[in-house]
């Protein structure tokens, strides 16, 4: 690794993310989230980034789901953004913490009513005997909250991945790609280095 740098990887991410929002035809905030169970067996799925600042990258989910359980138990995760239209990727690895109830409440309130009802109806990641069962549970939630607000379920909330590694990958001709790796320098800043493609 080289020495300390002036460039902030969070600012670089925001710049790339803005370009992705302008060029990606669908879901520029889509990100692969990788977790592992107690035996180290990996699992990956696509989620949506719902927040980003100097503290880290935020996603939301049912905390009783497989990913919620693994995030809570292991306290670590990896994220991968792939913006095909830009031929770029960003890889993030770091420690995971729950976001505050206030942050989770604020985000939940921005979701569409049906999405909020779905959070009450779904036992995410658990076996489901038929689609009709889920639809009946959704209808029951709709009746329960009819005419009123749909509050955030207690088992639903956000997680923040605080980066310990952020890699910016850019496609180059002849597979001679560019890989820039940022790691904390232990003094509140970042070190930057390059990786062989």
Low-confidence stretches: none
Instruction: Specify the CATH homologous superfamily of the largest domain.
Output: Electron Transport, Fmn-binding Protein, Chain A
**SSE-based structural type:** alpha+beta
Average pLDDT taken over every residue: 94
Percent in strands: 35-45%
CATH architecture of the largest domain: Roll
Strands, total number: 9
| CATH class call of the largest domain | Mainly Beta
Give helix % range.
25-40%
Number of helices: 5
Radius of gyration: 19 Å
User: What is the terminal-to-terminal distance?
Assistant: 15 Å
CATH topology of the largest domain: Pnp Oxidase, Chain A
Largest sheet: 9 strands, antiparallel
Topology:
Blueprint: H1 9-23, E1 30-36, E2 42-48, E3 51-53, E4 56-62, H2 66-74, E5 76-83, E6 88-98, H3 101-108, H4 113-121, H5 131-144, E7 156-170, E8 178-184, E9 190-194
Account of the 3D structure:
The chain has helices at residues 9-23, 66-74, 101-108, 113-121, 131-144; strands at residues 30-36, 42-48, 51-53, 56-62, 76-83, 88-98, 156-170, 178-184, 190-194. It is elongated and about 55 Å long. The model has no long low-confidence stretch (mean pLDDT 94). The protein contains five helices and nine strands, in the order H-E-E-E-E-H-E-E-H-H-H-E-E-E. Strands 1, 2, 3, 4, 5, 6, 7, 8 and 9 form a nine-stranded antiparallel β-sheet that branches. The chain folds into two domains: 9-109 and 154-194, Pnp Oxidase, Chain A; 110-151, no CATH class. Strand 5 and strand 6 (88-98) form a beta hairpin. The chain has 197 residues and is an alpha+beta fold. Helix 4 packs across helix 5 (131-144). Helices cover 28% and strands 36% of the residues. The relative contact order is 0.20.
């Amino acid at each position: 690794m080289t020495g300390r740098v002036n460039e902030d990887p969070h600012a670089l991410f925001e710049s790339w993310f803005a370009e992705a929002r302008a060029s990606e035809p669908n879901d520029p905030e889509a990100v692969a989230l990788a977790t592992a169970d107690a035996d180290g067996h990996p699992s990956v799925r696509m989620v949506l980034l719902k927040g980003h600042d100097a503290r880290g990258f935020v996603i939301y989910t049912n905390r009783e789901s497989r990913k919620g359980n693994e995030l809570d138990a292991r306290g670590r995760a990896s994220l991968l953004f792939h913006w095909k239209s830009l031929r770029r990727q960003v890889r993030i690895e770091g420690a995971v913490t729950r976001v505050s109830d206030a942050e989770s409440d604020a985000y939940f309130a921005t979701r569409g009513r049906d999405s909020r009802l779905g959070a009450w109806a779904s036992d995410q990641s658990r076996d489901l005997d038929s689609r009709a069962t889920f639809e009946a549970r959704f209808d029951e939630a709709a009746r329960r909250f009819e005419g009123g607000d749909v509050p955030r379920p207690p088992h639903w909330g956000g997680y923040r991945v605080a980066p310990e590694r952020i890699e910016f990958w850019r496609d180059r001709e002849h597979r001679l790609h560019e890989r820039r790796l940022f790691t904390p320098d232990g003094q509140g800043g970042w070190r930057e280095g390059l990786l062989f493609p």
